[in-house]
């Protein structure tokens, strides 16, 4: 097993402005330490405002931490101490899938142009090479090469999800990060998307980090689970260990809430 991502002492501090008759809100996250192995799936769970989405954004480079270091394989991806500039290889090494696919797809630009942009900016491929790669990637996520000519309004929710996935894997990343990627999908499309991600993960050796409130999916696909509360990692371990023998009170609360819903699940839904 090879380690692809290492996080050490990652910290974020935020203070909102004081409002009338209210004290300023202060939210701090970390310090966070975690390691990610090639090909594994890690789920980050917790209640609202636990800091899990913020952690995902910091790992993806969308939010700058105040302290700590993120290392992608042997390359330092981010370090506050040294203010290391991220290289193109580092930027494309970690990619993010968003919850609302329609918001990440420009309605006035065809799919082919949307997928071409990250390649044009972050690779030395020629136009014909990029077009071939885009077509191959669309097929890989279960679409047709002809979908390069489609606009957002011509795509179903499931197809939009696949376009977002294609955009994420095009630069051949090492780590995929997703914040509630299945929440807006109906059960059938959700099942298809879960299976597709597992297939791509196996084929490409991707590490997958995802944020979810759906503990059914977490138990179905995650190798390890990280539980967060108030900006801290309060418990982590192998998925079955967390579900069978939760230690922290918050983890027990989350697991019991999931178990109370099990009889309502359908056989077709992996939840």
From TrEMBL:
The keyword Acetylation does not apply. It is a peripheral membrane protein. SMART domains: AAA. GO terms for molecular function: ATP binding; ATP hydrolysis activity. SUPFAM superfamilies: P-loop containing nucleoside triphosphate hydrolases. It is found in: Cell inner membrane. PROSITE patterns: ABC_TRANSPORTER_2. Residues 5-255 form the ABC transporter domain. GO terms for cellular component: plasma membrane. InterPro entries: AAA+_ATPase, ABC_transp_ATP-bind, ABC_transporter-like_ATP-bd, P-loop_NTPase. GO terms for biological process: transmembrane transport. Gene3D superfamilies: P-loop containing nucleotide triphosphate hydrolases (3.40.50.300). Pfam families: ABC_tran (PF00005). Keywords: ATP-binding, Cell inner membrane, Cell membrane, Membrane, Nucleotide-binding, Transport. Its main location: membrane. PANTHER family: PUTRESCINE EXPORT SYSTEM ATP-BINDING PROTEIN SAPF, TRANSPORT ATP-BINDING PROTEIN. Belongs to the ABC transporter superfamily. This is Peptide ABC transporter ATP-binding protein. It comes from Alteromonas lipolytica.
């Amino acid at each position: 097993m090879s380690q692809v991502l290492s996080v050490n002492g990652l910290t974020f501090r935020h203070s909102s402005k004081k409002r009338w008759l209210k004290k300023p809100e202060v939210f701090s996250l970390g310090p966070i330490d975690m390691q990610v192995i090639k090909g594994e799936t890690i789920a980050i769970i917790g209640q609202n405002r636990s800091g899990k989405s913020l952690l995902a954004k910091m790992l993806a480079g969308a939010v700058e931490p105040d302290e700590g270091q993120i290392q992608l394989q042997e390359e330092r991806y981010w370090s506050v101490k040294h203010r290391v500039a991220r290289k193109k290889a580092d930027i494309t090494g970690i990619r993010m899938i968003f919850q609302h696919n329609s918001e990440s797809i420009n309605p006035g630009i065809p799919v082919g142009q949307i997928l071409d942009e990250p390649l044009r900016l972050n690779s030395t491929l020629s136009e014909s090479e990029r077009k071939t790669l885009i077509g191959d990637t669309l097929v890989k996520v279960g679409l047709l090469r002809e979908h390069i000519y489609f606009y957002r309004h011509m795509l179903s929710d499931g197809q939009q999800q696949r376009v977002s996935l294609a955009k994420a894997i095009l630069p051949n990343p090492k780590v995929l990060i997703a914040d509630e990627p299945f929440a807006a999908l109906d059960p059938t499309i959700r099942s298809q998307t879960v299976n597709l991600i597992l297939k791509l993960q196996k084929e490409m050796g991707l590490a997958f980090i995802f944020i979810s409130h759906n503990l059914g999916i977490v138990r179905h696909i995650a190798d390890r689970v990280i539980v967060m509360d108030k900006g801290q990692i309060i418990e982590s371990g192998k998925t079955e260990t967390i579900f069978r023998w939760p230690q922290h009170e918050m983890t027990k609360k989350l697991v019991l809430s999931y178990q109370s819903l099990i009889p309502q699940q359908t056989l077709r839904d992996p939840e």
